[in-house]
Amino acid sequence: MKRIRKAVLPVAGLGTRFLPATKAVPKEMLCVVDRPVVQHVVDEARAAGIEHFIFVTGRNKAVIEDHFDIAYELNRTLESRGKTKELELLAKDQPQAGQTSFTRQQEPLGLGHAVWCARELVGDEPFAVILPDMLSRGSMEQMVAAHEKHGGNIIAVEEVPEDQTHQYGIVSVGQEFGQTFEITGMVEKPPKGTAPSNYIISGRYILQPEIFDLLSTQERGAGNEIQLTDSMIRLMKDQPFFGMKYQGRTYDTGSKIGFLMANVAYALEREDLSADFRKELEALLRQD
Asked: What predicted TM-score, i.e. pTM, was given to this entire model?
């Protein structure tokens, strides 16, 4: 069984839910505390053993590439001012040469198309897909462990209330294996009251390379876009899929509430911020 070395991060979206903030700044570069959202996601993947990060970008996203490059002028300035701590922080976050790749999605044709754009960089090996809007610390480590146990294709899932299932992609549950289970079917945003379970697809995947052949012939689906779910349903006819019940909380930073909650949660966990931030937060709440 090949281990998971590569991750595809689709970052071509326009971020319209965060206008005007995202007019000139990619939504992936908005900060949760003092780190861009995309950096948090890369941190998660590196902790799981991912070595190569493939960013599927679009126009006006060059700053993401710059973020993961060496800023020589900044480094020289920090060095001349004796800012050793800051230099060490930048060095720690810096991927090694050759560990990042960037390819363009020239048209906004959906998640399936974005993943397909990475086919030449992924090659013939299983790979991860990580939606950078979703902050799920530890999720990729759990995903890799599930893949080492089962092989095949792995999808991270989470439970939602029954009255919310129509908003998500939903999986059907087969044989259970503790934290994982066999997926017997998938449906994208089922009508209210028809969902086969309350387990949603939550933005983390491990997929076999055969998905690329299916994506190349995938017809447009929901939203007139090429949907990754549609090709996964086709792949299920030949390969097993397993759901991995994520043990943790996901913050959807693509929504305003999710973004704000991520900032609060991450700040409260910082030793250098939590005490003072909690006092300020409690004082603010008491004003209400």
From this structure: 0.91
